[in-house]
Design a protein that fits this description.
By secondary structure, this protein is of the alpha/beta class. The protein has 18 helices and 17 strands. Helices cover about 35% and strands about 15% of the residues. It is globular and about 65 Å long. The two termini are about 30 Å apart.
């Protein structure tokens, strides 16, 4: 992307000395908010500190020329389900979703593995005595996905379009992941759900975490866990193109540190963390709201490895080799122990590792014959990890992959490692390496960053809005946080 996109100008309905909206941050949420506002005829300026748009949705050649790696967001079950992306028609602007044969897989010892295919029936047929329970839990939710997804991806206190169906889902969603997984008779389906739930970077025994696992598994059947052809950067490039086409302006390489640096505007939409919102605008916000921002907790950090490979990962189970995403962590109890250790401030001896194999389905990611690997594990928040500690975590990641793919180290050509400090430097929203935009637990599912019917609108009369992953529905490159924040601005501040 260029450092500035589109001509500097004003929208149709704003005086030349005042914009309708300034958006701080050009991640997928900030750009979605900008696109919605610009399409509504409002004059929009997007200001981004980095040299390119993207936030947590960039793609780059991190290791070797010709090998393209997603720096953060990589697979997009909620992006493919996003009402915002559908309304904005990102697919018509170059976003192509590529779905692997196996949406995600979970290897176990002794050469066994669970695998989720697009088809509920194909998946259930491989789960033996647990086939019926998979159909009744995950399959039922997948069959209702079109009706429920807008509510799942909406603010927590909005009345659902399908109350009875959503009520049945909500009753199950309060369950812990360990309890949900324990309902199955065999190891594979429980591990599949536990692996999905562990994306929350929270103890699996915690209430509501099972709901996340169930939701991600159902999304795999309903919309898949696709990657974007050419890289996740294509998503934000499409959003940026919409902003510019509708008369908006995007300015990169400009950091906003105070309100004095924000151009005059009727509304300001912050695609930032609560900490940054407080630092920039705390003087114009009510004290009670500032305290809520200060109480907001960030979740676990990550150590991430991007590797170039000479050939595919030599997984022991063939279904795992066909998966776009692989959850590496062993049994439900092992995953629970790993995530509990992180929550208690320790490094897991056997970490839960999320592995992305984008080049399995997207040939543009690597030169002919080569492959890419995208992997991370959680590490404690607020711990200063030195170089030796991070190297030790990388060794544990390698050990876990090698456990289920003997010979893995032999196919690694090169790698780049990012620890929590590097992630925060790359994207200031990722405090302590937390790229989920805040801890995910029962409280912060609804208090994100506070309990409110409209969590995007900051209290007071300043016309401030928050649209980052620290608002509902939380993390993911789906743009729904920005879509809802823009809708709130149109209702309350930009009414004409």
């Amino acid at each position: 992307m260029r450092e500035a996109l589109g001509p500097l100008g004003t929208g149709k309905n704003a005086p030349v000395d005042q914009l309708d909206a300034v958006i701080i941050g050009a991640g997928p949420n900030g750009l979605t908010a900008a696109a919605r506002l610009a399409r509504a005829g409002r004059s929009v300026l997007v200001v981004e500190a980095a040299s390119t748009v993207g936030g947590g949705c960039r793609t780059a050649e991190l290791v070797e020329t010709g090998f393209r790696h997603d720096v953060c967001a990589a697979f997009h079950p909620f992006g493919a389900s996003s009402p915002a992306f559908a309304e904005l028609d990102v697919e018509g602007r170059g976003v192509e979703w590529l779905r692997p044969d196996v949406q995600f897989a979970h290897p176990l010892d002794d050469g066994r593995a669970g695998a989720v295919w697009s088809s509920v029936e194909t998946t259930a047929a491989r789960l033996g005595p647990d086939a019926r329970r998979w159909r009744r839990s995950v399959g039922r939710l997948a069959s209702q996905w079109d009706a429920l997804a807008p509510s799942i991806l909406g603010p927590p206190f909005a009345w659902p379009a399908h109350p009875l169906a959503f009520g049945r889902f909500a009753a199950t969603a309060t369950t812990s992941a360990t309890r949900l997984a324990g309902r199955f008779a065999t190891p594979e389906p429980g591990a599949l759900l536990a692996g999905c739930a562990a994306h929350a970077a929270a103890p699996l025994e915690q209430a509501f975490i099972g709901g996340l696992g169930l939701t991600l598994a159902a999304a795999a059947h309903a919309r898949g866990w696709p990657v974007a052809r050419g890289g996740s950067q294509t998503i934000v490039d499409a959003l940026a193109a919409i902003v510019v086409e509708c008369g908006g302006t995007i300015e990169c390489g400009r950091t906003i540190r105070s309100l004095d640096e924000i151009p005059a505007a009727r509304a300001v939409v912050f695609d930032t963390s609560p900490i940054q919102l407080r630092r920039i605008a705390g003087s114009r916000l009510p004290a009670r709201y500032v305290r809520a921002l200060e109480r907001f907790r960030h979740g676990a950090g990550v150590v991430k490895v991007d590797a170039t490979l000479s050939e595919p990962v030599p997984w022991s189970h063939p279904d795992v080799a066909r998966a776009g995403t692989v959850h590496v962590g062993g049994t439900v109890l092992e995953i629970a122990a790993a995530e509990r250790a992180v929550a208690e401030g320790s490094l897991a001896a056997r970490p839960f590792v999320v592995v992305g194999q984008q080049s399995v389905v997207d040939p543009t990611r690597a030169p002919a014959g080569g492959h890419t690997l995208w992997a991370y594990c959680h590490v404690p928040q607020g711990v200063a990890h030195d170089r030796d500690a991070i190297a030790g975590v990388v060794e544990r990641i390698d050990d876990q992959i090698e456990r289920f793919a003997p010979g893995f180290r032999d196919v690694v050509r090169g790698r780049r490692v990012m620890g929590p400090a590097e992630y925060e430097s790359y994207n200031p929203n990722c405090h302590g390496g937390d790229f989920a935009g805040g801890a995910i637990d029962a409280r912060q599912l609804v208090a994100r960053p506070r309990v409110a019917r409209d969590p995007y609108r900051c209290p007071g009369d300043a016309g401030f809005y928050l649209c980052s992953s620290s608002t509902p529905p939380g993390p993911g490159a789906h743009g729904m946080n920005g879509w809802h924040a823009a809708g709130s601005a149109l209702r309350h501040t930009l009414t004409d």
